[in-house]
Amino acid sequence: MTQRILTFEGVGNFRDYGGYATEDGRRVKTGKLYRSAHHGRATDADLEAIAALGIDVVVDLRRPGERDREPSRRHASFAGQVIANDIGDAGGDDPWQAFLRASDLSPESFRDYLAAYYRNAPFEPRYVDLYSRYFRTLAETDGAVMIHCAAGKDRTGILAALTHHLLGVPREEILADFLLTNAAIDFEQRIPMIAQMMEAEIGRRPTPEAVRVAMGVDQDYLEHAFLVLQARHGSLDAYMAEVLGVDEALRASLKSRLLD
Q: 186: closest CA among 3, 1, 4, 7?
């Protein structure tokens, strides 16, 4: 599994989420689907390596404030499409920042916040728009598609998991890919830096254990998100059709393009 992680100097959690076998005996193509953390700190060497991947579409799942704080760096030759939006952003608090200020910063508080996030995010207008546009564009694009948010784990993780489900990747492999974030992150190196950043923002410093929870992913997050989708729509397929507009014709196009 870890061989799909690509190492860059300034872009974390970068990996190919193709290559998985599907339940009907086919396989998701490699070199067509990439996911990562943000590219605001990409080095020139990173940009050269990313350009060589042939990415035609970038889906930036971040809020406008996040994009302003860490503007994406892209290779000078990049002429592809960038999918982003400002839906639901009226200049108010970023939910994460608001949570940090109100939280006791315990590991349990971070876990509860993330669990609630996974249950709610698939229904937020911001992500319904972004996810819908991603699937439509994915069916029409010859080159590779890159999806990313800030850390490349939650918003990105949900979208990658939905993609895998649509293509017929078995649930255990969907979860394994989701959990690969925990192998892609160098916790020991990043925990002190993240703790310091939080302290600078809110004047309080979380424990290393709490930061580890905040930075990582847990299988329960995604499983509970799927349970909510199933409870509200009857199945993941129904959610994707009714909310994201992924009908049978679009599903067939995606499978034709992305499966060997």
A: 7
